[in-house]
Amino acid sequence: MRSLRPLAVALLAIPLFPLTELPGTSVAAQEEERTTVGGYGEVHYTNLSGAETPGSVNVARFVAYLAHSFNERLSLRSELEVEDAKIEGGEEGGEVSVEQVYLDYMLSPAATIRAGLVLPPVGIVNETHEPTTFNGVDRPGFDHDVIPTTWRDIGVGLVGSLPGGSGLSYRVYLLNGLVASGFSGEEGIREGRQEGSNATFANPSLTGRLEWTRPGLTVGGSFWYGGSAAQDPALGTGTFDNPVAVVSADARYDTGPFMFRGVVANVSISDAGAINQAYGGQVGSRIAGGYVEGAYNLLSALAPQSTQRLLGFVRYERYNTQAGVPDGLVRDDAFARRTTTFGLTYKPVYNVVFKGDYQLRRNRAGVGQDEQLALGVGYQF
């Protein structure tokens, strides 16, 4: 299995630039360059019900987007993110990180080579996580503990849409893998992400998505598979040792004033027992769950001609980061979580949003449960 490593290195070294004039493309067209600047951001206010501490407010994210088209086939996309407003040495703060940076080289409308730091196409929110694209002040807890949004890794892949008006599109990547030493019982595989920082390619991974789109409807399926041993002798030194497999399915439906979305996912960690023995953790052998959400545009009844939107919504999440446990590990029912969120989303224009919601957070053990009021504003451009 180690023979995949030279292949991975070779793929990452593919030159993604035209050495001569592209077939069917004039020199003038190749020389047309343009740069695009954009971004998004959000500010959150949260207040735990019954808590003795006052509510808090936070600049959750500020993201600058920079894109450049070198010609009609070759382009760059990048995002730089600041979380929690500031970074200051020796004190608690957020982080500054490159969220995405990759080159696209279009072979045809059906196939574009993509290489760099990319978002694995798993679930709904990981690729589309701007604050104007989802209801609720913060992203669903499922997209933190099951699908570890925002998930990003380095590699190369192919993306495109199938010809003939089928509505089918695909994305498939060869990326660096996860690192099992970061797994935990509470947050699953989340801290096993390498996020493009000195990432080891000891365990490459494969990930992909097939998506079908029709007016108002999107249905997709995603997968991830790769090792996570990272050359730790306690876990193995093979390419796919300590494997992690993720499968997910999702759907979005927007019809008139109604909007619906739902997603389910299952994460299998084959050698969770070895991980816990090596690092003293509580990693489950299976993580599973999902959520469903419905929303209604109240302005469709109150002001039918308005282009603004006022969405009332409710979302129910149910997931367990110890849906399965290896031999010798006692299941912690506090990790079997249920969250009900209901609130309002007001969009005066499509790319600015004001939000408010209330969450009821419960678990099977009945410990550490709470309720939270949240308010937020967000934008993208």
Strand-helix topology:
Blueprint lengths: L3 H9 L14 H5 L2 E15 L7 E14 L4 E10 L11 E14 L2 E8 L23 H4 L7 E9 L6 E8 L29 E10 L2 E10 L17 E12 L2 E12 L2 H8 L6 E12 L1 H4 L6 E16 L11 E14 L2 E12 L6 E11 L1
Antiparallel strand pairs: 1-2, 1-16, 2-3, 3-4, 4-5, 5-6, 6-7, 7-8, 8-9, 9-10, 10-11, 11-12, 12-13, 13-14, 14-15, 15-16
Observed structural traits:
16-stranded antiparallel beta barrel, Porin, 16 strands, mainly beta, globular, 381 residues, disordered N terminus, single chain
Quick summary:
This protein has helices spanning 4-12, 27-31, 142-145, 272-279, 299-302, and strands at residues 34-48, 56-69, 74-83, 95-108, 111-118, 153-161, 168-175, 205-214, 217-226, 244-255, 258-269, 286-297, 309-324, 336-349, 352-363, 370-380.
Architecture overview:
This protein has a single domain, classed as Beta Barrel (Porin), CATH 2.40.160.10. It has five helices and 16 strands. It has a 16-stranded antiparallel barrel. The chain is globular. It starts with a helix and ends with a strand.
Q: Just give the CATH class.
A: Mainly Beta
Can you give the helix content as a percent range? Answer: under 10%
CATH fold node name: Porin
How many helix segments? 5
User: Any low-confidence stretches, pLDDT <50, length ≥5?
Assistant: 1-30
What's the name of the CATH homologous superfamily? Porin
- CATH architecture classification name: Beta Barrel
Q: Roughly how many Å apart are the termini?
A: 45 Å
- Largest sheet entry: 16 strands, antiparallel, barrel
Count of distinct strands = 16
How many individual domains?
A: 1
